């Protein structure tokens, strides 16, 4: 029997923002009744790109209802750019945690939010272009690869917990394992660096990584980052643009900027934002 936090029980027994917005600015439909979980998220967004209202309808377990409920509370009153940075881990943490077997409910919430924002922006999600790997639950290779990468998943069981793939007939297990191996094989070269960098080499590599990998991703949402100083393994930066005022800036700093620099420069690096 799974143990649910008080927060999960509260949002399950008394869910917030249940329903559907009339003439929504964006709609996200994910999952399916055939697969056992489905979620429809509707958003109302004003002329300043602020989410003024959010409602949901879901068919699923207690975790699905609780994840959807807390998500609507998280996004009301923030900008679309800020909402786009919310991860499934953020949703789970807002509930005080979820059983690992129920993490797919937080993933479904994040996917519904992404779909609603894409609908509002008139864009097509890259997930829709993936190749179906799990026929039972309609999960694509892109979805599995992202789940493995973002959550450091290492087994087929882990993947099933997060995106349900592999939890049906089992015919897709071999392909799922191939994706897991492919993701982790890409990580190995970065972890096996044996050449010690000089301070000048380290600074140059940090600057190149910021310019080539990190800044373009932040600029897509109107943000930016400035390198202030490098003190040993401490990298001092300043968040700019929308990142400077975003409530999730510390998550971006640690989960994206620091992780990317550790992956591509040195695993011992620590990124800190200058206090001014």
Your description of this structure?
By secondary structure, this protein is an alpha+beta fold. It has 3 domains: 118 residues, Sufe protein. Chain: A (Alpha-Beta Complex), CATH 3.90.1010; 64 residues, Orthogonal Bundle (Arc Repressor Mutant, subunit A); 75 residues, 2-Layer Sandwich (GMP Synthetase, Chain A, domain 3). It is 47% helix and 18% strand. It has 11 helices and 8 strands. The strands form 3 sheets. Strands 1-2-3 form a 3-stranded antiparallel sheet. β2 and β3 form a beta hairpin. The longest helix has 21 residues. The mean pLDDT is 88.
Could you list some keywords that capture this structure?
276 residues; alpha+beta; Sufe protein. Chain: A; Arc Repressor Mutant, subunit A; GMP Synthetase, Chain A, domain 3; three-stranded antiparallel β-sheet; 11 helices; 18% strand
Largest sheet strand order: 1-2-3
Helix- and strand-based class? alpha+beta
Mean pLDDT: 88
- Regarding quaternary structure, what we see is single chain
Largest sheet entry: 3 strands, antiparallel
What CATH architecture of the largest domain do you see?
Alpha-Beta Complex
Helix-strand sequence: HEEEHHHHEEHHHHEEHHE
Name of the CATH first level of the largest domain: Alpha Beta
Question: How many β strands by DSSP?
Answer: 8
Unreliable runs:
none
What percent of residues adopt helix (DSSP H or I)? 40-55%
Strand content: 15-25%
Any idea what the shape is?
A: globular
Cα Rg: 20 Å
Distance between the termini: 49 Å
- Helix segment tally: 11
Number of separate domains: 3
CATH topology of the largest domain: Sufe protein. Chain: A
